[in-house]
Amino acid sequence: MATGAEITEPKPRKKGRKILKIRVIQGHRPTPTATISISQQ
């Protein structure tokens, strides 16, 4: 779950864009639990 920790810690701008893309991909998925677990981490 190292990726989840990095998603919650947006440091550089380039990574920030990746975080947005990851969020969109997770939002499209029919599993809101995944986004909730990432938000809690």
Describe this structure in words.
The structure is a single chain. With 41 residues, the protein is an all-alpha fold. The protein has helices at residues 2-8, 13-28, 32-40. It has one domain (2-40). The model has no long low-confidence stretch (mean pLDDT 58). The protein is elongated, with a radius of gyration of 10 Å. It is built from three helices and no strands. Helix content is 78%, strand content 0%.
Question: What is the gyration radius calculated from CA atoms?
Answer: 10 Å
Number of strand segments: 0
User: In the residues, how many domains can be counted?
Assistant: 1
Shape summary: elongated
Question: What class would the helix/strand composition place it in?
Answer: mainly alpha
User: What can be said about the biggest beta sheet?
Assistant: none
Give the mean pLDDT: 58
How would you sum up this structure in a few lines?
This protein has 41 residues and is mainly alpha-helical. It has 3 helices and no strands.
Key features of this structure:
41 residues; mainly alpha; 3 helices; 78% helix; elongated
Secondary structure layout plus pairing:
Elements: H1 2-8, H2 13-28, H3 32-40
